Amino acid sequence: MKKEKVMRNVTLIAGVALVGLFPAPCHAQAEVAPDFYELSNTEATMTAQQESSAKHQQQAAEFQGKVSLPYAIECSGKSLAPGQYSVSVKTDGTNRLVSIRRNGQVVSVVAREASQSSANGQSALLVRRAGRAHKLEAVYVEDLNAVLYLDGAGKAGDASTSDRVPIT
Fold first, then answer.
1. Is the pTM of this model over 0.85?
2. Contacts of 120 by beta carbon, 8 Å cutoff, 6+ apart
3. Number of folded domains that form the chain
4. Is there a domain that residue 126 lies in?
5. Which tens digits make up the pLDDT trace of 115-131?
6. Are 98 and 126 in contact (CB under 8 A)?
7. Cβ contact 153:138 at 8 Å
8. Residue 3: inside a domain, yes or no?
9. Rounded to an integer, what distance in angstroms lies between the CA atom of residue 160 and that of residue 71?
């Protein structure tokens, strides 16, 4: 029994020595995350990205213009002081969104569209006068041939109490 134990120990030592002297072969891997990538045709890629961005901006804003308000106007519960503003119309799903901007202040209103079969004149803000107060009722967009009513207004007001403020 002692002889078997010695034999087992010798075999174990020989096995460990053999493994230690002859390690398992291994191969280095290729670089997983190189520091640089060879780029080709980057100019065409940049041009395609710029064109895509331009198309997205055109789709985002179907109409853009500038308007000069000669007096204060109420729009969606906010008062717009006299001065220069930019006006844009965008489609958001099935809704039209009218945005009026000045110096970082933005008033955006969801509008209900009504086709204007007998459209005339250039794009304009349609403002209703009530005494000294003025309220933005709708936006007429010549390019879209549509009147966009704001704040639940559904029809044009009396022409004698309405003003057209042209959009350029």
1. no
2. none
3. 1
4. yes
5. 655 557 899 999 998 88
6. no
7. yes
8. no
9. 18
